[in-house]
Design goal:
It is a single chain. By secondary structure, the protein is of the alpha+beta class. The chain has a single domain, classed as Roll (SH3 type barrels). The chain has 2 helices and 5 strands; from the N terminus they run H-H-E-E-E-E-E. A hairpin with a 4-residue loop joins strand 2 and strand 3.
């Protein structure tokens, strides 16, 4: 009879394991997932607030000034030098040089 009782795991061990997993997930969410979601929200707010004349940096590292916005095609015309205008996707613009997203 005592062999049968010794072979069964304690019920408290399963509960402790479950609590430990929940605590680890909560710590991971607080330090990794939450800051990334906050950063993505700030980037999206910046993209939605872009207007003509806004200085931007593209994903390729090109600095320029927004000259025109095409909401239908979701693109921007960015002047990178005097008279040189390129068309970039609005999603490839990450920040203006003056704005620091943290």
């Amino acid at each position: 009879m005592s062999i049968f009782l010794a072979a069964q795991p304690a019920a408290g061990a399963n509960t402790q394991f479950l609590i430990m997993m929940v605590v680890i997930f909560a710590i991971m969410w607080f330090f990794m997932i939450r800051p990334q979601q906050k950063r993505q929200k700030e980037i999206q707010n910046f993209r939605n607030s872009i207007a003509r004349g806004t200085q931007v940096v593209t994903a390729g590292g090109i600095y320029g000034t927004v000259k025109d916005i095409d909401e239908v095609a979701n693109t921007l015309k960015v002047e990178i030098a005097n008279g040189i205008v390129i068309t970039v996707d609005k999603g490839s613009v990450f920040a203006s040089p003056q704005t620091t997203i943290q």
